[in-house]
Design a protein that fits this description.
With 375 residues, this protein is an alpha/beta fold. 46% of the residues lie in helices and 8% in strands. Helix 3 (71-82) crosses helix 11. It binds zinc ion (ZN).
Length: 375
């Protein structure tokens, strides 16, 4: 039986989300704890210290910033420049990059940074992506591995003392454990929150995908980072992170959102750089956990006090299940797969603990919304 947080709209089927005896989830708790307890002045001072230390160590660039061109990475760059850091920005080039994504990336580079756009062999990437979709029901495992691996590998290679990530998603979306809730991104964090279902690139080595093929996806070990004097830190630890605020700042610096409807979820400014991988990644949550990106986004809105839970539920009702036909078509063209085959694979990942078949339709018992159209 699926249970929903009484404060936000997230279900306990979401990985790393736990609903306590009070009916409130750990993401909501960590949000309100953070608001009440965090001394942002002290955190800012810590960041200033980190910047100072970094600059004393750096010989070329001060920090690596992993960027997509999205609003968060634009914000990271704005902040780094404000604090006088000289960043090397690094992008994993998504095979699904959109024209808007390219414009936003160009805009970000134009803020005054050096940039490397890394393209992984398209044939390897395609085969790897299809493999993870078939075996793990995820199109985004290669993407997440690459997004984390490439900047860390670059920092080690160029001896850059700091890798500056954005938000710590363990804080924003629910997480636990001291190893994962601090300023530092560790191997433990990556395995838990790196969205690779706990797998490493080496776990995917096969007759079809050699270790060499997958080398761009390998995460360095903590000790490799230590030896190279690289610290991987979350900017969101030091400065308050809020999607509306990062969007406002990014927009002021030339970032463009979508003009009409969001690609996925609630925000018109989220995931705009990618034409299908991210949308389908989030869509698979519907099969696996019985919710979509919209639930995550609306829960953030509730926590930050911009929306009531009742309003969020109305929005979910209105949007329905958001079947992403256009993105599925684009993916199928890219992967050389039919829509039927895509849906057959997706179906194998339907979580039978929450879904059951009733008069020809798949339904979720005790769903958030009673009068839902399941057909
Ligand atoms: Zn909650």
């Amino acid at each position: 039986m699926i249970k929903y947080c009484k404060n936000c709209v997230l279900p306990d089927s979401r990985p790393n989300l736990e609903i306590g005896a009070d009916g409130i989830c750990n993401a909501c708790h960590s949000w309100s704890d953070k608001k009440e307890i965090i001394d942002w002045e002290a955190r800012l001072k810590d960041f200033e210290k980190l910047v100072e230390h970094t600059k004393s160590k750096a010989v070329s660039w001060d920090c690596v910033i992993p960027v997509s061109g999205g609003k968060d990475s634009t914000w990271q760059v704005i902040k780094a420049l404000e604090f006088g850091l000289k960043p090397l920005c690094v992008t994993w080039r998504t095979p699904a990059r959109s024209a808007l994504g390219q414009r936003n990336l160009d805009n970000l580079i134009g803020l005054g940074v050096d940039h490397i756009d890394v393209t992984i062999n398209p044939d390897v990437e395609k085969r790897f992506t299809i493999e993870t979709f078939k075996k793990a029901g995820s199109l985004a495992i290669p993407m997440h591995m690459a997004i984390f691996a490439i900047p860390l590998q670059m920092a080690i290679k160029f001896k850059i003392p700091l890798v500056l990530w954005g938000e710590n998603s363990a804080m924003e979306y629910g997480g636990k454990g001291e190893n994962t809730l601090g300023f530092k991104m560790t191997r433990d964090w990556l395995k838990t929150y790196g969205v690779t279902q706990g797998t490493l690139a080496q776990d995917w080595v096969s007759d079809d995908l050699s270790e060499k093929d997958l080398s761009a996806y390998y995460w360095p070990d903590d000790h490799e980072l230590e030896e190279a004097g690289v610290t991987a830190a979350f900017l969101g630890w030091y400065l308050p992170w809020d999607p509306e605020e990062t969007f406002r700042a990014a927009k002021e610096h030339g970032f463009e959102a979508l003009s009409d409807k969001p690609l996925t979820g609630y925000y018109t400014y989220a995931d705009v750089d990618d034409e299908f991988i991210i949308t389908l990644h989030h869509w698979m949550k519907w099969y696996k956990f019985g919710f979509t990106r919209l639930w995550d986004n609306l829960s953030l809105e509730i926590r930050s006090g911009r929306m009531s839970r009742a309003q969020a539920i109305e929005i979910i009702k209105e949007k329905g299940d958001e079947y992403p036909k256009e993105e599925i078509d684009k993916f199928c063209v890219w992967a050389g797969m039919s829509e039927k085959e895509f849906l057959e694979i997706a179906q194998t990942f339907r979580n039978k603990d929450i879904w059951s078949e009733k008069s020809g339709s798949w339904v979720i018992d005790s769903f958030l919304i009673d009068e839902w159209n399941w057909s």
